[in-house]
């Protein structure tokens, strides 16, 4: 098991890479029966765990006995190459990483479900192979009822509208067919003027940075107070006593006590997408989902798949 509060980044990268390519993501999204979606195939061009450049703020107590994992040196060694490439600093904790994913389109809450599984892998609660199991909809047509990740850190970072995405699976930024107008480009002050957007962004950054610095100093100060050895011993004893209860982290500011962790594939299964579509259609007065799609002009499953592939 990974020490609580720490993540196995290498395992998360292994799991993230399994999302790449074209897959059926019905087990990694929330089904919206009102839309009567029948094609859950989406193509992910890139999927990775990336260290954020120059974002680490040192909290030395995390490397002290009782706080740091036993394999801290190994973690440093495994992350040194990626740290050098991304501008991160070796040996400085906590580190900040983000889940980078680029795809042709996404389903409802797809990213939050993908991240939830990555967090389970990072905490050692699941193996990276769980991603492959969830993507195998022939064997697993119904989604296990796991909790999706917190919404707060989720950011739509960029969009491109290439003239012909099907001609290039890479879809680089220069392929964009739109001419974008950026905030500040057409204003009298520009981006860097007295009332430009950079001035507003700086004020927001400074406010958050001061909160970070003060909170970090408080953490470091409290960690040095009292009898640390006694505190660590009590923490170890308490952890052993409640070993049956697992604290699961899902991207928010704290964890969630979940009792004995059963494993994703052993969780209660939700109704399949087809079953949810049929139930919704009958509730609206139709015979079934197919009847609803026919009467309301929804695309057939084949037409929907053809359109999605054409859009890609």
UniProtKB/TrEMBL annotation:
It catalyses: uridine(38/39/40) in tRNA = pseudouridine(38/39/40) in tRNA. SUPFAM superfamilies: Pseudouridine synthase. Belongs to the tRNA pseudouridine synthase TruA family. Gene3D superfamilies: Pseudouridine synthase I, catalytic domain, C-terminal subdomain. This is tRNA pseudouridine synthase. InterPro entries: PsdUridine_synth_cat_dom_sf, PsdUridine_synth_TruA, PsdUridine_synth_TruA_a/b_dom, PsdUridine_synth_TruA_C. GO terms for molecular function: RNA binding; tRNA pseudouridine(38-40) synthase activity. It comes from the Eukaryota. Keywords: Isomerase, tRNA processing. Residues 15-162 form the Pseudouridine synthase I TruA alpha/beta domain. Residues 276-294 have a biased composition (Basic and acidic residues). Residues 274-312 are annotated as: Disordered. Its EC number is 5.4.99.12. It is an enzyme of class 5 (isomerase). GO terms for biological process: mRNA pseudouridine synthesis; tRNA pseudouridine synthesis. One of its GO terms (cellular component) is nucleus.
């Amino acid at each position: 098991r990974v020490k609580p509060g720490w993540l196995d980044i290498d395992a998360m990268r292994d799991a993230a890479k399994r999302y790449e390519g074209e897959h059926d993501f019905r087990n990694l999204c929330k089904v919206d029966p009102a839309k009567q979606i029948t094609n859950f195939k989406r193509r992910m061009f890139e999927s990775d765990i990336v260290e954020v450049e120059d974002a680490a703020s040192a909290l030395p107590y995390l490397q002290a006995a009782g706080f740091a994992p036993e394999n801290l040196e190994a973690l440093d060694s495994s992350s040194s190459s990626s740290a050098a490439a991304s501008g991160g600093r070796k040996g400085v904790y906590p580190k900040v990483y983000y889940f980078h994913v680029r795809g042709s389109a996404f389903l409802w809450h797809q990213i939050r479900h993908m991240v939830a599984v990555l967090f389970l892998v990072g905490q050692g609660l699941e193996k990276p192979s769980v991603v492959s199991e969830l993507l195998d909809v022939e064997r697993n047509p119904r989604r296990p009822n796991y909790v999706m990740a917190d919404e707060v850190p989720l950011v739509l970072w960029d969009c491109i509208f290439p003239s012909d995405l099907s001609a290039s699976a890479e879809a680089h930024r220069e392929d964009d067919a739109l001419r974008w107008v950026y905030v500040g480009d057409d204003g009298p002050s520009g981006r860097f003027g007295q009332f430009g957007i950079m001035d507003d962004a700086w004020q927001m950054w400074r406010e958050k940075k001061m909160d970070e610095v003060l909170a970090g100093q408080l953490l470091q100060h409290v960690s040095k107070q009292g009898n640390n050895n006694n505190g660590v011993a009590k923490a170890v004893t308490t952890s052993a006593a409640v070993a049956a209860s697992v604290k699961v982290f899902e991207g928010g500011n704290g964890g969630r006590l979940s009792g004995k962790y059963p494993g994703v594939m052993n969780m209660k299964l939700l109704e399949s997408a087809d079953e949810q579509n049929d139930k919704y259609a009958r509730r609206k007065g139709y015979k079934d989902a197919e009847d609803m799609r026919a009467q309301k002009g929804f695309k057939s499953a084949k037409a929907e798949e053809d359109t999605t592939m054409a859009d890609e």
